[in-house]
Design a protein that fits this description.
399 residues; mainly alpha; Son of Sevenless (SoS) protein, Chain S, domain 2
């Protein structure tokens, strides 16, 4: 059997017919999990060969697995697909091939569909990224247009009870950030070592990235900041395998979102995007302006004879409020669409943000998942697959 596997690996792309014939007939003489074990063994043993030869063999293993998955006459059970996923996500080279194999795994996952995220309401369908972006814009706009300039002055003075509308808007932004973390770090969807769970997190992260890009298109910068801020927090950003499994396009979009939300250079990228056109501004950037004004005032007050800067301070505060609220009187054009289901879904999801010790849950889950994702692949898992195939000793028995 090992010789036959080596022959398959040496076959050229033109011999695809022979590979397909083998995959259609293999059930008669070897179970799929054992065949996978043999392929994993060939992949691992290639590392002892010269670098160029090693890369060639390992690429051939990935191509053979892809061919196997794409054979329409073969049906895969959930445990085989899970083992394939667990193996493929440990591969650090041939990333284009890795992504192709993962897409083929997804295409065969009919027994356990990969959901976007667990729904809190069985009666409400999950929105598309575009629908979610529109719902967020409607909610954010209603909060934004109610804010009054005096609330910025109250915020500067620390009188939070005097700025209820500003508080409502910033609280909503925090809820979105918290909700995304809860969904990304949910441990209920399979065991933490389950390859499907890591794949789901990767796809969910892509979903939120696409949603943020949709928000940017319709100029809802408030939601862009909330979503990007959540995805870039260490609780999520530390999940290396989740990030690695994303499409290259999504990784590049995340880099753009990171640049957009950077606070250095006075949020330069964000302020360039404003362009005095209708939008929902990102309040965090403007509230940071107020903090800078108050910080500068404190440094002046410590001098023996401070100049009379009170007038300048209040003028700066008024200008900061004007800059943040200048778009309230400009109608924000929403796409005409029926969004009642998406609205109900989001409101139902946000209810979970107010349950229990969420910070403790988020930090605990993040540490657990990061430890798993950032640790090197444990050889025992591959030894187990090889042992199951009948071509190796039991796991842990090697000296």
């Amino acid at each position: 059997m090992t010789g036959l596997i080596k022959y398959l690996l040496m076959s050229s792309e033109g011999d695809i017919g022979q590979r397909n014939t083998f995959f259609q007939a293999h059930l008669a003489f070897i179970p799929p999990i054992n065949l996978l074990g043999l392929l994993v063994r060939q992949f691992d043993e290639a590392s002892t060969r010269p670098e160029e030869e090693c890369r060639g063999i390992q690429a051939s293993v990935l191509r053979v697995i892809k061919c196997w998955l794409n054979n329409s006459n073969v049906t895969f059970t959930d445990d085989v697909l899970a083992e394939m996923t667990k193996f493929v996500i440990t591969v650090d080279t041939h990333q284009e091939l890795v992504q192709e194999v993962l897409r083929s795994i997804d295409g065969n996952a009919s027994i356990r569909p990969l959901s976007m995220w667990p729904s809190s309401s069985s009666s409400t369908s999950k929105p598309t990224p575009h629908q979610l972006a529109l719902v967020l814009a409607k909610l954010e706009w209603e909060l934004y247009r109610r804010i009054r300039p005096s609330e910025f002055v109250a915020y500067a003075g620390g009188s939070l009870l005097s700025c209820p509308n500003l508080q409502a808007a910033t609280s909503f932004a925090r809820d979105i950030c918290m909700w995304i973390q809860l969904r990304m770090l949910d441990l209920s969807q399979g065991g933490p070592m389950d390859g499907f769970a890591i794949r789901e997190r990767s796809r969910l992260k892509e979903y939120f990235i696409v949603t943020a890009m949709e928000c940017q298109k319709i100029r809802n910068f408030s939601s862009v900041g909330s979503i990007a801020g959540a995805l870039l927090l260490p609780t999520i950003d530390s999940l290396s395998k989740t990030h690695k499994l994303m499409q290259t396009q999504r990784q590049e979009e995340l880099k753009k979102l990171k640049k957009f939300t950077k606070s250095n250079s006075n949020y330069r990228t964000y302020r360039r995007a404003l362009q005095d056109r209708p939008c929902i501004p990102w309040l965090q950037a403007h509230l940071d302006d107020i903090k800078d004004i108050m910080r500068n005032e404190e440094s002046v007050d410590k001098q023996p004879e401070p100049p009379l800067l009170r007038f300048e301070k209040w003028t700066a505060l008024q200008e900061s409020a004007r800059s943040a609220l200048q778009y309230r009187g400009v109608p924000f054009n929403f796409e005409e669409a029926s969004l009642s289901n998406a609205m109900d879904y989001l409101k139902g999801e946000l209810l979970t943000v107010r349950e229990g010790d969420l910070n403790g849950t988020i930090l605990g889950n993040s540490r657990r998942l990061a430890q798993i994702e950032n640790s090197p692949a444990e050889p025992i898992h591959r030894e187990l697959a090889i042992w199951k195939s009948g071509f190796g000793p039991p796991p842990g028995s090697r000296g």
